[in-house]
Design brief:
- The protein contains 4 helices and 4 strands.
- With 109 residues, the protein is α/β, with parallel strands linked by helices.
- It has a 4-stranded parallel beta sheet with strand order 2-1-3-4, sandwiched between helices.
- It is globular, with a radius of gyration of 12 Å.
- 36% of the residues are buried.
- The model has no long low-confidence stretch (mean pLDDT 96).
């Protein structure tokens, strides 16, 4: 499966995404059911309140993503311990924009 990952812009300075790349390749964490996946793109939400996640998700789908993944920095607050307060709205707007045929995965590790 090809996935596009959206991560938190605020977390980008302290997290290079290394664990996201490892667990997707190994089929662990949120990918335990899918098995290993291929990352077609790794982008940020664009900053609060995450409005840029919508066009970026569309681009990821255009480039072959079969699922959009919200990295755990957004949904769970890893590693800073503060989940995105805009996550639910961002997720819902992305779902509306890309349609029901694209799977949403709400965390990575």
């Amino acid at each position: 499966m090809n996935v596009g990952i959206i991560r938190c812009l605020m977390t980008e300075d302290i997290c290079p995404g290394t664990t996201d790349f490892k667990i997707t390749a190994q089929g662990k964490g949120a990918f335990a059911e899918t098995g290993p996946v291929n990352i077609v793109g790794f982008v940020t939400c664009g900053g609060c309140p995450g409005k840029r996640a919508i066009p970026r998700a569309k681009i990821l789908v255009e480039r072959g993503a079969e699922a959009i993944v919200f990295a755990s920095c957004i949904s769970k607050g890893n590693p800073i311990g503060y989940p995105c307060p805009h996550y639910a709205n961002m997720r819902d707007a992305v779902i509306k924009a890309i349609g029901p045929d694209i799977q949403i995965i709400e965390w990575t590790h």
